[in-house]
């Protein structure tokens, strides 16, 4: 057996990352043995070739977009960059210049929340390409465990992210910037994998477009409407 498989998993690290969401994703991916299941949310009197329910696909697409949006906010440049230093004046008229740690914390907290939601929902998928994207996200996060820990973000036993607000705000914000801003590897790679999950969910959703017995064509998948009505 080689050192890593098609998901880029290093088997020497298997014992440390086999629990939680990561193991769930791998178990789902390999356990299905390439088999696909029928959608559990088909339209009456119609046929769908989708492996996942329309609800699952809608939530995956929505959560993936949230991850992409949260990373994009951290990667803004120019005047919109969260990592521009600002000058504040206290009640005594004293001026200080530095990062707006409250704004940066809020943006990173939004990222961790979105990330956790996507990992949870991807684990419910029966689509191998979606499972691969989810496993890759968790894999790159695990590879950056030490750097994330340095800025107050820990990876739990379930592989979800938790941010320690006090530790985060005391961190040198240049370290946070190195993890998320501009073209940073971690932020960019997570956003890329989330984009893959979104794209695969859309492709799978197209298979849920079905013909009724009457001959009419029904589009089962409407992200916003379906998402809002099923959560």
Question: Overview of this structure, please?
Answer:
The chain is mainly α. It has one domain (16-230). The chain has 10 helices and 6 strands. It has helices spanning 14-17, 20-31, 54-74, 101-122, 128-143, 145-150, 165-170, 173-180, 185-206, 223-230; strands spanning 86-89, 95-98, 153-155, 161-163, 210-211, 217-218. It has a two-stranded antiparallel ribbon. Strands 3-4 form a two-stranded antiparallel ribbon. β3 (153-155) and β4 (161-163) form a beta hairpin. α2 runs antiparallel to α5 and α3 packs across α10. Residues 34-54 are annotated as: Disordered. This is Flagellar hook-associated protein 2 C-terminal domain-containing protein. InterPro entries: FliD_C. It holds the Pfam family FliD_C.
Query: How would a crystallographer describe the biggest sheet?
Result: 2 strands, antiparallel
In percent, how much strand structure appears in the residues?
5-15%
The radius of gyration is 21 Å
- Measured as a percent range, the helix fraction is 40-55%
Shape: elongated
Low-confidence stretches: 6-19, 33-47, 215-219, 221-231
Number of extended strands: 6
Structural category is mainly alpha
Query: Which sequence of SSEs, written as H and E, runs from N to C?
Result: HHHEEHHHEEHHHEEH
**pLDDT averaged over residues:** 79
Number of helices: 10
How far the N terminus sits from the C terminus, by CA atoms, comes to: 43 Å
- Sheet with most strands: strand arrangement: 1-2
The structural domain count equals: 1
Biased composition (Low complexity): 42-51
Protein name: Flagellar hook-associated protein 2 C-terminal domain-containing protein
Region (Disordered): 34-54
Domain Flagellar hook-associated protein 2 C-terminal: 127-222
């Amino acid at each position: 057996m080689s050192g890593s498989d098609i998901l880029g998993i290093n088997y020497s690290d298997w014992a440390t990352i086999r629990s939680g969401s990561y193991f769930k994703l791998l178990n789902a991916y390999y356990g299905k043995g390439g088999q696909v299941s029928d959608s559990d949310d088909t339209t009456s009197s119609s046929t769908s070739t989708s492996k996942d329910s329309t609800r699952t696909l809608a939530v995956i697409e929505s959560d993936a977009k949230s991850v992409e949006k949260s990373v994009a906010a951290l990667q803004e440049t120019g005047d919109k960059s969260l990592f521009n230093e600002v000058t504040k004046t206290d009640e005594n008229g004293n001026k200080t210049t530095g990062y707006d740690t409250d704004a940066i914390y809020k943006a990173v907290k939004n990222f961790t929340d979105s990330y956790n939601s996507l990992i949870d929902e991807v684990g419910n998928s029966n689509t191998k390409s979606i499972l691969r994207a989810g496993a890759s996200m968790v894999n790159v996060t695990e590879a950056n465990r030490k750097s994330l820990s340095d800025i107050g973000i820990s990876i739990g036993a379930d592989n979800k992210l938790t941010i320690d607000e006090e530790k985060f705000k005391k961190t040198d914000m240049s370290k946070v910037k190195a993890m998320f801003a501009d073209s940073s590897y971690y932020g960019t790679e997570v956003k890329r994998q989330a984009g893959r999950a979104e794209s695969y969910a859309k492709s799978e959703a197209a298979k849920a477009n079905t013909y009724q017995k009457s001959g009419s064509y029904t589009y089962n998948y409407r992200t916003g409407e379906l998402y809002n009505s099923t959560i």
